[in-house]
Every structure is written in structure tokens, then in C-alpha cells.
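Problem statement: downstream parser choked on a complex file, so we are re-checking the raw output for the 1-O-phosphono-alpha-D-glucopyranose run. The parser issue turned out to be on our end (a line-ending mismatch), but while we're here, posting the original submission so the record is complete.
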Amino acid sequence: MKAVIPAAGLGTRFLPATKAQPKEMLPVFNKPTIQYVVEEAVASGIDDILIVTGKGKRSIEDHFDKSFELEYFLRNCGKTDNLHEIEAISEMADIYYVRQKKQNGLGDAILCAKKHVDGDAFAVLLGDTIAKSDVPCTQQLVDIYNKYGASTIAIEKVPDKKVERYGIIKGNRVSDNLYEIEDLVEKPKLSEAPSNLAITGRYILTPEIFDHIEHLTPGVGGEIQLTDAMKSLDKIYGHVFEGKIYDIGNTVEWLKSSIEIALEDPEVGEDLRSYMAEIVKC
Ligand code: G1P
């Protein structure tokens, strides 16, 4: 299976940090966000990855490219650990790029992957969302796809105040963590939301999705919405993801993600914990 990572958005919720750098390259603790996303795809057994980029996103390509100068320098200084880490980034997967020519929504970004995906089911991992779990989120979805042979998306229960930020599903529970989806609504008002189960940014989609996207008219925000295209799929399941999602699209969530991930780091975790305890007392 191939993976598609949409990373073409302008990151307007994160200005001015994203004025001259892609939001997907903002570091969460010590790595750019999109590296976590690529690592999740690779950990789920996927090594053919298409990143949908756009204007001003070139640093994403540089990050996953080989860096001869840096590697030469690290080798000469004897910084072997750093060298191996840097080499591994450019070797972890075959990464391809396509540009979305115009900001026209997530559905339109996915449509840019049609040729590359070439008629097979494929995974979608949003480039600004990190999913942490023992079994990688995409792997959890692949397992369900392999069992049921239908499109499957990760969902998560969100508090009322966050409902308007997400695509929300209406579904019938078929087992503990699995819903058969009847309807989906992109960013509904709380009063119109059919549930609190939100689409979290990980999908396995069958290739019919492309036809449905091609027939869409603009939805919320005047954009071509992937959520609207998914309504027309014959069958689609929602899996309540076992793990934690970090949506780094806004500043507070991004900060929390960095802190939580750093707290788990064996080298800096303890130090950070006592620093936080200290500042909270003041
Ligand atoms: C996109 C999707 C939405 C989903 C969300 C998850 O929205 O359109 O359905 O719930 O990602 O982060 P965006 O955050 O790009 O506005």
C-alpha cells in the first residue's frame, strides 16, 4: 500500500511562525512534525510515500533528501550518532512529491495523488497531525481494511467545544471500537453535529474516492472537502483509534505536544519535569 501525506496548507492558524516555513516543518520537541508522520507510515509497513506540497514547501524535500555536506562534516568530527540519525532520515522511504497548484481544500490535495496511487487502496496521513500509540495508527487502520476490504478512517471522541474544528461522523457501532459510518459532516456547529466522534487525520481510502472528489462542489470554506467525498463511498468504517492524537495546527496544541513528547524523552524528561514543577509553584 502507498501513503499520501497532504502538506500543502498555508498554516494560517500559526502565523507568523509559518510565514516563511511550512507548518509541517515546525519541530515538535526535536523533530519536524512531518518526520513523525513519515515514521508512522514506515512503521506501518509503507515505504512508498507521496507528499502533496505547494508553494513555499521546499524545505520538506530538503529534509528528506541526502545531505552530503552535513554528513561529511559529521563524519569528520566523529559525531557518529548524529551521522547515523541524519543518514536514516533520507533512507527511510521512497518519497515522491507533487504540488497542489492552488489552495483548494483537502479533497483537492488528495486528488493530486490519483496518478501515483494508480487504482489501489491507499493510506492518507495528515502532515500536521502526530498519532502516538503502541501499534501505529495507520497500521491499526490497515488491519481493519484487510479484514473488511472497505475504506476505514480513524476517529476519536472530542469534547463539545472542539466539535466545530473537525469532520464528525454518524455511525452504528459494529464492535467495541468500530463504527459503520452512515454520514459525515465537515466542521458542523455543535447543535448540528450527529455525534462527538471526530475524524482525526488518518484514513485508508479505496480508489473510488477520486471519482467522488471529481464530482464535488465546494463545501465548507468554499473548498473541496475530503469529508464530503467520503459520504459517497459504498462502505466506510470508523475506528476509534487506540492512542493519542496531537493536532499541531494551532499554537497551544503544538506546545502541549512538544511538552508531552519531551517529558517522555529519557535524556531531558526528568529535567523538564522538575523545571515545570518549579514554574508552576511561582
Ligand atoms: C481536516 C479534515 C477534517 C478532520 C481534520 C483533522 O480539517 O477536513 O475532517 O477532522 O483535518 O485534523 P483541517 O484541520 O485541515 O481543517
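For whoever reads this later: The mean pLDDT is 96.
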